[in-house]
């Protein structure tokens, strides 16, 4: 591949990409949890949660692709294995099948964690003057903040 000359030096691209790898791992882990809960939710709110979880994992599937492609745009290999995601993710795996109420709580915390990870990456991107990553991460934060609010609203 030719040298990358997009106005961001190699060291900054590496730092931003490392942050994006953590965001990708958190997003992919949350995608898997959400899909799992979509399949396994039960109870009085089944239909509402089943459909909501489907909306969420569909949106996350697009997000992980966008994040991985941004990492590649910066000239860095994107992680793509469960082992790498488990090492990089701040979101814990869930054992068994939680109740629908627990699913909502787990996913709320997962979306909030993605927001926190995004804030860390945002600082790296801002210091590197990387507006493309800033825009991507800002959009991700907005979506996860709104999603966590919507999930919390189902529990009131």
TrEMBL record:
GO molecular function: ferric iron binding; oxidoreductase activity, acting on metal ions
PROSITE patterns: DPS_1 (PS00818), DPS_2 (PS00819)
CDD domains, per the entry: DPS
Family matches, as Gene3D superfamilies: 1.20.1260.10
Pfam family of the protein (one): Ferritin
PANTHER family cross-referenced by the UniProt entry: DNA PROTECTION DURING STARVATION PROTEIN (PTHR42932:SF3), GENERAL STRESS PROTEIN 20U (PTHR42932)
Protein name as it appears in the record: DNA starvation/stationary phase protection protein
């Amino acid at each position: 591949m030719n040298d990358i000359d997009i106005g961001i030096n190699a060291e900054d691209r590496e730092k931003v990409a490392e942050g994006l790898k953590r965001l990708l791992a958190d997003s992919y882990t949350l995608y898997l949890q959400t899909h799992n809960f979509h399949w396994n939710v039960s109870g009085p709110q089944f239909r509402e949660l089943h459909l909501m979880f489907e909306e969420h994992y569909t949106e996350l599937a697009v997000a992980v692709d966008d994040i991985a492609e941004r990492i590649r745009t910066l000239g860095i290999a994107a992680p793509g294995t469960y082992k790498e995601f488990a090492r990089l993710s701040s979101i814990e795996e869930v054992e068994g099948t939680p109740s629908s109420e627990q699913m909502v709580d787990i996913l709320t915390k997962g979306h909030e964690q993605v927001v926190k990870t995004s804030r860390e990456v945002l600082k790296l991107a801002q210091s590197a003057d990387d507006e493309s990553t800033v825009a991507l991460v800002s959009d991700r934060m907005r979506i996860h903040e709104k999603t966590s609010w919507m999930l919390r609203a189902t529990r009131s």
